[in-house]
Amino acid sequence: MATQQPLVLVVDDEESIRESVTYTLEHESYRTITAATGSEALKKFKDNHPDLVILDIMLPDISGLEVCKGIRSIADVPILFLSAKDQLEDMVEGLDNGGDDYLAKPFHFAELMARVRALLRRSKGRKVNFLEYEDIILDPDSHIVTKGGRTLHLTLREFELLEMFMSKPRQVFTRQQILQQLWGWSDDLETNVVEVYICALRNKLDDENRSLLRTVRGVGYALG
Known about the structure:
Elements: E1 7-11, H1 15-27, E2 31-35, H2 38-48, E3 52-56, H3 64-72, E4 79-83, H4 88-96, E5 101-104, H5 109-123, E6 131-133, E7 136-139, E8 144-147, E9 150-152, H6 156-167, E10 173-174, H7 175-183, H8 193-205, E11 213-216, E12 220-223
Parallel strand pairs: 1-2, 1-3, 3-4, 4-5
Antiparallel strand pairs: 6-7, 7-8, 8-9, 10-12, 11-12
Helix pairs in contact: 2-3, 6-8
């Protein structure tokens, strides 16, 4: 599977800024999503799990500082503040509230891209907890699962079952292995609980023409 380019969330209430920043990023082959308000930014972050956030401080509903705190409570991704507030105390406040870097407006796009590249290089050393398979993203810390940007509502057992499959895609797990790992049952008991949960998970994962959970007849189940 080809490695995807980093996804950047651009948050600014000025449409011209959003468009110019996303144009520059996409010209350098980055993927982008945008938000014009703080609440929209938090929702798009949770739904899409971007690799970096470019965040304006002065937003119409909640401040960029509060958005930064909200993101920091669930993830450790690089956050670059953009702001017309260019005083030293403003920069210090942004960094003290969880930002990784601060760029005052107006700015040169060459400098913006240099800072984006530097932040992404440094972030490679950070611990990444997300599990990904195709368009499915599973966050073990928040117990959030998305597929194609849409949140899936899973029970605890369904979540644990999917986490097991996503930790080792294409590996076949036997019925007994699943019983042992999820329920702690060492014997292959006469129960259809595994089949019930496989069926429930398939109903939430599968597209109309394709099943992501594969049955290996006489052996077990695998993702992909």
